[in-house]
Design brief:
Ubiquitin-like (UB roll); five-stranded mixed β-sheet; elongated; 5 strands; single chain; alpha+beta
Length: 100
């Protein structure tokens, strides 16, 4: 662990529909969210990630890519939504009304 002295321990996470990729990364203080993602191997391990357009966050809260990281932050790379949540809710309500 001597090579990690003075560094921040963060995790980079990407959830596939059937799998979760999680990687521990040691970065220098002042490292941004985007820099930490590039320092990890997740983009190589999950080539389906379109990192230019995807959203990212820390512990479930969307954050800008230039956010400076803190010790033990968990960076999350979000997949695009398959369905609009409001439209899905409308369909569920309509289905329940038909069942009545």
């Amino acid at each position: 662990m001597s090579d990690c002295a003075g560094k921040l321990h963060v995790q980079v996470c990407y959830a596939r529909p059937d799998d979760i990729l999680l990687e521990d990364v040691w970065v220098a203080p002042g490292t941004t969210l985007e820099q930490a993602v590039h320092a990890s191997t997740l983009l190589a391990r999950a080539p389906e990630i379109d990192f230019i357009s995807c959203k990212v966050g820390i512990y479930g809260k969307p954050k800008p890519r230039d956010t400076v990281l803190q010790q033990r932050d968990r960076i999350e790379i979000y997949r695009p939504l398959v369905a609009d949540p409001m439209e899905a809710r409308r369909r569920r309500v309509a289905k329940k009304e038909k069942a009545r």
